[in-house]
Write a structure and sequence with these properties.
heterodimer, A: alpha+beta, Arc Repressor Mutant, subunit A, three-stranded antiparallel sheet, 14% strand, B: mainly alpha, 0% strand
């Protein structure tokens, strides 16, 4: 359980960047999208998502903007910045190499 | 609705961020609560149950506020250096022994006054408070000098100047506490050190004073250099407890240096008094803040009560 939590903690920023790279989203929408795309595997503690989003914003990787929806409600949408896109592509490449190497060791080819 | 307001209130209590960021965070979490509440009502929960569940799922406001604080509390290196600059200037003043250089002194006074006026007019940024502390030091220094002057000056200092000076310091401290008490502690940090060195220099005898100043100059410079390091560390650390810890530990270290240097004149009792004064100045703002918040809460409660009484009168007048 702790291992899983540590893995999620280490990759939260990348997951969030990946989602807002797909399309700008607001906090509640991000939680739902993470849950949907991971088929229920990622269930974020709701309160901890917002500090993570603000951390991305402070680091210049994302930008939050208030927008009014047609129904009159206001939402704070997060947009990925150029710096965020660059960071995301770097992290994706590292992650792919890492995952491939781990797979080679943990699930060696049987043939 | 009352639960939602209570959540926003306790979040505000713990946040201690700039007003604009604070308002943004509370607004964003309120929209989240509203979305979650709507979803829960649609799934069959009553309004009350939905509000309670939504706030519970969002987590403790204290933890959310702590994590938000850690996002915004770290100043950049530029801010840390600028905040430490007044202490570095004083350290350089003593290291280069240029306390009699008029050009240097006027430059320092201009830098302090300029930075304080600029910072005060631009939303009181975090780097302002060490500079602001140096505006309070002349108030204290003049009080001490008056005590050492012959004739009726000591009497004037005790009855008029010192109470007035303390009132000014208290009023500035209260204003600073409204932002966050840790900044008041940061502002008051050099007071025990300046006080300690002034006593150690034996101001009553001009000849001894000059000799002592030359003898202690490297130690005075070192103590202000450590003060600069303390401020820079404070600005760069994210966690609140670590910020307060850095202020306490490094202030005591400076007082140890002061005690070793000026031991003969200050004495152990005097040194203990300085340590006690440091603790009061560093932790006193926290207690004062608690009292101020309690008073505000009571005032708000009584205001709400009085407006509740007025409400039926207003309605009857309207009807």
């Amino acid at each position: 359980m702790n291992y899983e939590r540590e893995l999620l903690k280490g990759n939260t920023d990348s997951l969030l960047l990946c989602l807002i790279n797909y399309q700008p989203m607001y906090g509640y929408q991000i939680i739902k999208e993470l849950e949907k795309r991971s088929k229920g595997y990622f269930q974020f503690k709701e309160g901890t998502l917002y500090p993570a989003l603000h951390r991305l914003e402070k680091a210049g990787l994302a930008q939050g903007k208030w927008q009014r929806l047609p129904g009159g409600q206001e939402r704070r949408y997060y947009y990925i910045t150029l710096k965020g896109q660059k960071t995301l592509s770097e992290r994706l490449s590292i992650w792919q190499d890492f995952a491939a190497a781990v797979t080679l060791i943990m699930q060696p080819a049987t043939n | 609705m009352a639960i939602k307001l209570k959540y926003a209130d306790s979040l505000k209590n713990y946040l201690r961020l700039d007003a604009t960021i604070e308002a943004d965070v509370v607004r964003e979490l309120n929209t989240h609560l509203e979305d979650k509440r709507r979803e829960l009502i649609e799934s069959g929960l009553s309004e009350k149950e939905a509000t309670e569940t939504a706030t519970r799922l969002l987590g403790s406001p204290q933890i959310v506020a702590k994590q938000m604080y850690e996002v915004y509390s770290q100043g950049s290196w530029r801010q840390a250096i600028f905040a430490a600059l007044p202490h570095l200037l004083v350290a350089a003043l003593f290291a280069m022994r240029c306390w009699q250089n008029t050009f240097w002194l006027i430059g320092m006074i201009a830098a302090i006054a300029g930075s304080v006026i600029y910072g005060w007019c631009h939303g009181k940024p975090n780097w302002l408070f060490p500079w602001l502390g140096y505006c309070l030091i002349p108030v204290i220094a003049v009080g001490i000098l008056l005590i050492y002057l012959p004739g009726n000056w000591a009497w004037f200092a005790a009855t008029a100047y010192i109470p007035l000076g303390l009132l000014v310091i208290f009023s500035v401290t209260r204003q600073t506490i409204k932002k966050d008490w840790v900044f008041a502690s940061l502002m008051l940090l050099p007071i025990p050190i300046v006080l300690g060195w002034m006593v150690a220099l034996e101001l009553e005898d001009k000849l001894i004073w000059h000799e002592q100043l030359h003898e202690f100059a490297p130690l005075i410079a070192l103590s202000f250099a450590i003060l600069a390091l303390t401020v820079a560390t404070f600005m760069r650390i994210r966690q609140r407890w670590a910020k307060v810890g850095a202020l306490l530990v490094l202030e005591i270290l400076i007082l140890v240096i002061l005690g070793l240097g000026g031991k003969s004149t200050i004495g152990f009792g005097g040194w203990l008094l300085l340590v006690l004064l440091s603790l009061v100045l560093l932790l006193g703002p926290a207690l004062l803040e608690r009292q101020m918040r309690e008073a505000d809460r009571k005032r708000l409660k009584s205001h709400n009560k009085s407006t509740r009484w007025l409400l039926p009168i207003k309605w009857s007048k309207r009807n």
